[in-house]
């Protein structure tokens, strides 16, 4: 696509989100930062193929739309109703054979063009699907990320070929890290209802169906933070089921996964020690795991390195102490229907718990 059109579209998007008035006034944003949640800014080969297909569909449909409207208007203005009343009094009732033949030819030609164009779109679709599937490789060194959809968060399990043992498994939630420049395989499944994995800058949608394993491949060509969203209605908090993908160069990714493989750091001061006890002796540990402690619940996200994540509650809140406190005390107020209950903790216990959780980098 030409850079000018791209720039206009990029500027139009926030304006469309905020209403048409700013767009018409030309007051749209466009601060030059990359778009993190937009299919029109592809950051990998899969999204690039889909992006090109989108433009083929757009231009074919736009040209047909303009032609149909033009012919409709021509038909409306040519009709006899617009002519002088004197002519209407003497309509010609016998069809003109040559004119009829010409009109039949025009209509037949239009039908033929429509059929050809439908085939062009179908072939474009097929070529795109083939290109996307061509990323699948049998390379034994492929990094595999298992993604399990839950109402309403994403469980992640990394299968790192360099560390194949079960004790080296890395479990996370809602924030996927991958290295740039090589294909990564995502194995998708669901623990409850149908969800859909969608990272618009990187790949199209893929459903997560309970009991039916599927897979998707994607590659990020440039480092960045890319936001995604569950794209299949999955209940009350479907809209608050976001995910984030952080693409980084190989060495940064290696450092990250090595850190994730470690158990949670030991508490380093009295508040953190008290916080750990609060965690282990309250309802928290029944649903959450913290590696290196007796807490092994599997209902909610693994919290071994929760302090290192950028968001809480599947992209609902930024990961700050204040938001974490609000979330622990009354998650139902923030995300009604979520499976986490309210927690009545004394102010000191809450402070201790926050200090402990924030230390889990
Ligand atoms: Cu999960 Cu919508």
Observed structural traits:
361 residues, alpha+beta, Immunoglobulin-like, 3 domains, five-stranded mixed sheet, three-stranded mixed sheet, 11 helices, 18% strand
Write up what this structure looks like.
- Helix 3 (45-78) runs antiparallel to helix 5 (97-133), helix 7 (270-281) packs across helix 11 and helix 9 packs across helix 11.
- With 361 residues, the protein is an alpha+beta fold.
- Strand 6 and strand 7 (203-208) form a beta hairpin.
- It has a five-stranded mixed beta sheet. It has a three-stranded mixed beta sheet with strand order 4-10-9, covered by helices on one side.
- Helix content is 41%, strand content 18%.
- It has three domains: 40-78 and 104-134; 144-259, Immunoglobulin-like (Sandwich); 270-358, Cupredoxins -  blue copper proteins (Immunoglobulin-like), CATH 2.60.40.420.
- Dinuclear copper ion binds next to loops.
- Residues 149, 152, 195, 230, 232-234, 238, 241 line the site of dinuclear copper ion.
